[in-house]
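Session log. Operator J.P. requested a structure for one protein chain; no other inputs attached. Running the standard single-chain path with token output.
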Amino acid sequence: MSKSLVAWFSAESGRTTALAETLASLTGADKFEIVPEKPYSKADLNWRNPMSRCNREQVGKKDVPIAGKVPDMADYDVLYLGFPIWYYNAPMVIKTFVKDYDLSDKKLVLFATSGGSDIGATAEKLQPYLSAGAVIVGGRVFSADASADTLKAWLDSLAL
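Structure written below.
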């Protein structure tokens, strides 16, 4: 029997956290919230300001130090990885997170929230940060009010 983990980063709205909680409940997975060592302020998340922190991190491909670690990542076979879409991409804090672990031979399932973007090429852009042998088996953007039935139908469609 495989063991799974739901790990997620949520900016300020809590939308991604809500999805993560529902996914963990549906899958019986353990949970880990990805929290940057230095929390984001409202100004840091202002994507309209080219000098805001989120923009500087994305453009500069800067690692974002994370508070805490998953103590037993080797025990998991499936990693559900959640985040808001930033610039048709995963935020740098997510890329830092996956770089920090040996994810070889793990299946990754991406779930995201967005104000208007779809999942696009997010998986392809994340792949270079993953360990060899890690496989992204699915990814989807959900609305903030996605129902448990919607999430369950999606989970059932995945090849896990």
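Operator note: Residues 88 and 120 are 6 Å apart (CA to CA).
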